[in-house]
Amino acid sequence: METVLRFADSVGRHITPRAIDQAVPSLLTIKRGLFYVLHGLQFRHAKFKASRHDIHRLDTVVDSLAKKGLLTRGQWRPHQWIGLALLAKLGRSWIQAGIDHGCISWDVQIARLGSIALMSALNCRSGQVARSAGYTGEEFLAWKDVQLRWDGDGAELNVDRLVARVTLRFEKGRKDAPNLNRVAIVELFQSAELNVICPIKLLLRPTRCDTAAAKQRRDRCVVWARPSEPVIPSLEDRSI
User: Fold this and answer.
1) Are 203 and 231 in contact (CB under 8 A)?
2) Is the pTM of this model over 0.70?
3) What distance in Å separates the CA atoms of residue 136 and residue 4, rounded to the nearest whole number?
4) At what angle do helices 2-14 and 52-67 cross, to 10 degrees?
5) Which end of the chain is less packed: N or C, by CB atoms within 10 Å?
6) Which pLDDT tens digit goes with each residue over 142-190?
7) Rounded-to-integer distance, Cα 122 and Cα 182, Å
8) Considering all CA atoms of the chain, what is the largest pairwise distance in Å, rounded to the nearest integer?
9) CA 53, 57, 59, 62: dihedral to nearest 10 degrees?
10) CB neighbours of residue 14 within 10 Å
11) What is the number of other CB atoms lying within 10 angstroms of the CB of residue 233?
């Protein structure tokens, strides 16, 4: 454990912050790194044990570095959220780049933009809608997880009244827990200027669903042609 204490004192003095304008590293970063170091040592060495006394000694070393001004407390930079206007600007720039410079396939161009728009609308991580590295099963958002229905009364069903009810089955910390699945409601953007970031318009294609059947159903839900396929497909050889 003495070696770990010396390592904590050394790394806190010599590590270089990632931010250019940050003079010293963050206290939170050092503590998080030491947490993984201890877990790695316990995994690799069965005889290595860190008692509560050792943890308190480690905290004392790190806190002493912060008191000396070698570490900074709290967040160095405030969180910056991406708003609707910025996301729309990114979407228009992405489409315009494909028009100006060309692209191998518009299917790929739109699918990539649609994945960003979908994650933004669902307020989720990429691993909650697409299969992450290391997984081999159905750890992705499938079309069966998306209930798309025509909202509104009357026989005339307008495309602009589509509403999606998306069930996120693989949220971090809630995998394999069906009763804890988060359900998000995604409405279609009415303004034509926001078509570039509307996930429903970007990802929905006639070949993926039977809209005629939806008009005849009582629940007015779209019937997916291949419900088990992922909403965000994988890209191979520059094609979907």
Assistant:
1) yes
2) no
3) 37
4) 20
5) C
6) 888 888 887 766 555 566 778 889 988 888 777 777 778 888 898 888 8
7) 10
8) 76
9) -170
10) 9
11) 16
